[in-house]
Design brief:
The chain has 396 residues and is α+β, with helices and mostly antiparallel strands. The chain contains twelve helices and 21 strands. The strands form ten sheets. The protein has a three-stranded antiparallel beta sheet, with no helix packed on it. Helix 6 packs across helix 12. It is globular, with a radius of gyration of 20 Å. The two termini are 29 Å apart. The relative contact order is 0.13.
């Protein structure tokens, strides 16, 4: 955990006189030198709380970084209708070069989740800046009323384009969108996306087609779905348990294709690979529900470790295996992003990635004490969303 925290603390802009103070790099590779990720910042804000609680930084240090970061987003960070761009220049807080023409709804949601976490923890001025940032976001700009879906992208020139039309990591968007006190979308939007039920061996779960494991983790890093069911009786926590167990079984079943796969060597998600960044996933299916090849031998530690709340014993076994048997995978920030041992020729990523470190750290904190869950779930907007979406708390 300490290595993951150190990434967010050390790979941030710490110049208090910089317009980009508090921005966090996308990763620690060469191409990340001037590139900040707003999703990385969202995880990093929540990491501050973990750091204070663990005694790695003082509460005053954490408060200063959290408040300064939110001031950066309120005053300096380039945005469109309150939505921020996926990547920002680390020093200027402007859109990073020409990367993506549109602001990002999912990355903005990740950022706001982090802002809510520190707001609940520190209160006061930190809460006030979170509130202003949240109030400014116009969720209706990303709402396709005709199809009752979120757009994936929006520009003033093109309008909305792309669709969040299937289950993925976007549950947080419904929470934040319906609870907005200024620009809310209707609660019925939650009914708009397809629920594609998949079956692999004994495991049944809703999934995206390519099925990288992060889609079953990111919203869960903040919202505690364990004892919550929706109007259709779906428990998304149980769904993530089943999806994670299916990945482990897939690795066991495909050891003949990739000898590195096995009982304690599994985990497919979006990560670096020998041929660049790719959303690896398994088991995967095409649009006709036929099995699809999407793993290619690359394994990311965050996939198993980010599922520690779903499969604690299995995830801890993976951690122990990687730490003891693949020393090349270890770095100052914990495990490097990924590895591939195809044909017994070990390839290891040269960097870590913020969102992968974030999922690892936050899920570990929730596994240990429920720290991030407790803070997020006590927020008034999150409570309001739970009511509006008719998500019902149950006891198992």
């Amino acid at each position: 955990m300490k290595g993951s925290f150190d990434f967010f603390w050390k790979e941030a802009n710490t110049d208090e006189n910089s317009p980009g103070y508090g921005l966090v790099r996308d990763g620690n590779g060469e191409k990340d030198e001037h590139r900040a990720s707003i999703a990385s910042v969202g995880f990093g804000l929540s990491a501050i709380v973990v750091g204070v609680e663990k005694g790695w930084i003082t509460k005053d240090e954490g408060h200063k970084r959290a408040l300064g970061t939110l001031k950066t987003f309120w005053h300096n960070a380039e945005h469109l209708n309150g939505f921020y761009y996926h990547f920002l220049n680390l020093e200027t807080a402007e859109k990073f070069e020409a990367f993506y023409d549109c602001a990002s709804i999912i990355d903005t949601a990740l950022l706001v989740n982090g802002a809510i976490t520190v707001a609940e923890y520190f209160g006061g001025e930190v809460y006030e800046y979170m509130d202003k940032i949240y109030h400014r976001i116009d969720w209706t700009k990303y709402y396709d009323e005709e199809r009752n879906l979120y757009y994936m992208g929006y520009t003033e020139e093109k309008g909305g384009f792309g669709q969040w039309d299937m289950y993925a990591e976007q549950l947080m968007q419904y929470i934040l969108g319906v609870a907005s006190p200024t620009h809310a979308v209707p609660a019925k939007i939650y009914k708009g996306f397809d629920r594609e039920l998949r079956t692999y061996k004994d495991f049944e779960f809703y999934a995206t087609r390519h099925n990288p494991l992060f889609v079953h983790q990111y919203s869960h890093a903040w919202y505690d779905f364990e004892n919550v069911v929706d109007e259709d009786g779906i428990n998304w926590f149980d769904n993530s348990v089943s999806a994670t167990r299916a990945q482990k079984q897939y690795a066991i079943d495909h050891q003949d294709s990739y000898p590195s796969y096995g009982e304690n060597t599994w985990g497919f998600t979006a990560c670096d690979g020998p041929n660049g960044y790719h959303a690896h996933g398994a088991p995967a299916y095409d649009i006709d529900n036929k099995p699809l090849k999407n793993d290619y031998g690359t394994i990311a530690p965050t996939a198993a470790l980010g599922s520690i709340v779903f499969t604690p014993d299995d995830s801890l076994n993976v951690l122990e295996n990687f730490y003891n048997n693949i020393p090349e995978l270890w770095s100052e920030y914990g495990f490097l992003d990924s590895f591939n041992a195809e044909d017994n020729d070990l390839w290891v990523a040269k960097r870590v990635i913020g969102i992968d470190k974030g999922a690892t750290l936050l899920m570990a904190a929730n596994y240990q004490s429920g720290l991030i869950w407790k803070l997020y779930m006590q927020n008034k907007y999150v409570k309001n969303a739970t009511e509006k979406l008719n998500w019902v708390k149950t006891s198992k």
